[in-house]
Amino acid sequence: MDEKFSLLRAKIKASQRLVMNKVISEHGTDICVLCGSENEITREHVIPQWAFEANQNKSLVNTKNNQSSSYIKTTIPACRVCNSELLGAFEDNLKRILLEKNGGDLNQFEVDCIIWWLQYLGFKLQLMDLRSKFLRYKGKEYIPFLSDIPVAMFWGEIDTTPHKVFNTIRKSRRELIKKRKAKKSNSLLIFETSNESFHFFHKVDEFIFIEIPQVKKAFFFFFNKEFDDHNLAHAECMEIIKKVYND
Question: For the whole prediction, is pTM greater than 0.85?
Answer without folding.
Answer: yes
